[in-house]
Amino acid sequence: MGFRMAIDHLQTMLYGTDDLQHLHSFAQTMPWYLLLLIPVTGGLVVGLILNRFTDDGRVCSVADVIEGAALNDGRVGLRAGIASAIASMITLSSGGSSGREGPVVHLAAVIASKVSDWLKYDGVTARDLLGCAVAAAVSASFNAPIAGSLFAMEVILRHFAIATYAPIVIAAVAGTVVNRLAFGNIAEFTLPQASVLDFYEELPAYLLLGLVCGLVAVVLMRSIFWAESVADRLQQRTGLPAALRPAVAGLLLGVLAIGFPHVIGVGYETTAAALTGQLLLFEALGFAFVKAAAVSITIGGRMGGGVFSPSLMMGALTGLVFGILATAVFPEVSGSETLYALAGMGAVAAAVLGAPISTTLIVFELTGDWQTGIAVTTSVSLSTALASRLVDRSFFLTQLERRGIHLAAGPQAYLLAMLRAGAVMRPAADPKCAAESACRDMVAQGLCVEASATLEAAMPIFDRAGVDYVPVILRRPDKDGEAEILGALFQVDALKAYNRALAATAAEEHS
């Protein structure tokens, strides 16, 4: 809640309006140079913070929390995490076109990591505590206790263990209480009237909407990754300092905001307009294209923020466009175009997050409309099924895959990357280790692994060379890189360690 209120206060200072729910409308009356100057200044400050306090100059996000849950005993970095939260707060306050939920999730993970360090929690306990923190943060951000608890299990922990359920739900309820003490029991979006699916003949349209939304979600995700790759190449070719990259992104955003002020910030005003049918066909279509560009610039330019709110806006606009066309072509069997907007909002967001269950519930809890379940779940199911085939399951898992972290395929793929050769090898002094002379001959042939190498790198050597073991070495810089033989990694030992890790993961998931 403090993060959310800090954004509100800073945004009020920068844009000079207390009515943040209608910021975009107010921005239309502002001088063009202020719309340009504010995001540039914000980007400059963000660049200085990230390049001073992070290793790679990028904002930590939900992907880092998923990585922490899977590979790092439920922990994320403290220094980079705090810097990322401040950078995202500045980005969202100064007009960055992204969402606040991703930074909130990571900030919760930072707090959970610190508490786990204090209490000396490791393994399943630390991961459960991380899940509790995320559930509370999402619930406090959305006033959505059911969706918050399921989001933590579906997206972060990526399993639904019974033993994990109770503490996570309690944490989600606590987060919701905090939200309601501050804002009351108020839905984020208010629909004009109850949306009802009047005709079952209309269901095929929602199936088609799901496929359309799945493609839109893929286009949005790939646009962000393409923008990031292009920005990387341009930065290398031009020699642009990394600290200035967010400022350049802010400049591009400012240029967009002059003509399309709806790209500023989270975008809930435009989302609400789509859900209430206040936009015309070409207006909604144009807004969707410009919003996709703005989100790609913001995240590709390393300004910070998350993708959930932008995906809600993209989904609502997509659904509204589809609904306008559907009701015009088949008026005799079509219901409300705003119901299509609601279903589209859930469908695009679910595909981006790779979380059909929690996203569906978030849509219901955000709008307070539970009578649209058939339409929303129909579209969500098709969108996630299609999008998950065209990317690595979700936006976050694709981010990790691009960094060489293979979590999308499940524990059978990533557990090998958690085990080090030095931890599994037989030491040279062990009587059951290989002979030193044989190890030296293999090292001379290049058949060896560093002690810091993972089993993911070591296991292919056994199949490729047809050997039962490989020497484990340590390069000594003080001796011109001479290889010191520490021991030998046997294939049978590596397989035993892998099986133990798989068994432990299965036990946690079925606890």
TrEMBL record:
**What is the top-level taxon of the source organism?**
Bacteria
Q: Where in the cell is it found?
A: Membrane
Q: Describe its membrane topology.
A: Multi-pass membrane protein
SUPFAM superfamilies, A to Z: Clc chloride channel
Q: Name one Pfam family in it.
A: Voltage_CLC
- Residue intervals passing through the bilayer: 30-50, 160-183, 203-225, 246-268, 280-300, 312-330, 342-364
> What CDD domains does this protein map onto?
Voltage_gated_ClC
Question: Keywords, A to Z?
Answer: Chloride, Chloride channel, Ion channel, Ion transport, Membrane, Transmembrane, Transmembrane helix, Transport
What PANTHER family does UniProt report for this protein, alphabetically?
CHLORIDE CHANNEL PROTEIN CLC-E
Name the chain's protein. Answer: Chloride channel protein
Name the source organism: Pseudodonghicola flavimaris
